[in-house]
Amino acid sequence: MFTIGDFARHGRVSVRMLRHYDAIGLLRPAHVDPASGYRFYEAGQLARLNRITALKALGFTLRQVREVLDEQVSAEELRGMLRLRQAELEAAMAAAAARLAQVEARLRTIESEGHMNTDDVVVKRIPAVRVAELSGVARSYEPEDIGPVVGPLFDELCRRLDEAGVTPVGPGIAYYEDDPGGDGILAHVAMPVAVAPGDGHDFAIVDLPAIERAATIVHRGPMDDVLPTTQTLARWIADGGHRSAGYARELYLEAGEDPARWVTELQEPLAG
């Protein structure tokens, strides 16, 4: 048997914590010396201590821990609970990382204000193009809401085109409109194709009309960082007395595995 100090060292907890567990009935000593009151523990009790420590670390209250352990939850059931809690924590960490990335992107936007050259804006005609496309709804037009919709849609569109034996004839395109069924944004992802319209495909064939006058600017890097570029374009439009006629199309000139090397042309239609 172990003294309380030895048991605490083997279990990597404090003596004070073991006394607390004893007081609330969560982990009783195997033996208490009636004369001295010293607590003694058996090696087999390390298994219960391990479960208590793991459940506590995963956010369970001591009351919840006691309920779990007193119900004689099997090792397999406990592993399942821990895996579920692990997934919840990983999701929370991913969400926190995404929020941090959003804050960093906004800071970069603020830091770049007035530093991007509006001379990079070019007005040109965007020709009509036939595309295969899929659509989905994003919560908002903010990059953090657009990216999780557009990325998987492109992956799915490419998969369907490959299954259909259709080879794209140009770089990918994304374009947007207000969702007619709600407050979100309807995102369309498209690949130029040389395919006649018709049934039989699990993607739409659409003829995108030409944009007679588009203010265009090239963005380099991940689309999560596109705000400084879009706001440079907006300043150029406002300073020149122009008026936007809708959401900008995105033409993905280079979109490889590394988002830092992406090259995207933003094509905002101009009224008049």
UniProtKB/TrEMBL annotation:
Every HTH merR-type domain range: 1-71
CDD domains linked to this entry: HTH_BmrR
Ranges in a coiled coil: 86-113
Superkingdom, taxonomy of origin: Bacteria
Keywords: Coiled coil, DNA-binding
InterPro entries tied to this protein: AraC_E-bd, DNA-bd_dom_put_sf, GyrI-like, MerR-type_HTH_dom, MerR_fam, Reg_factor_effector_dom_sf
Record-linked Pfam families: GyrI-like, MerR_1
Record's keyword annotation contains DNA-binding: yes
This protein's name: MerR family transcriptional regulator
Species of provenance: Microbispora siamensis
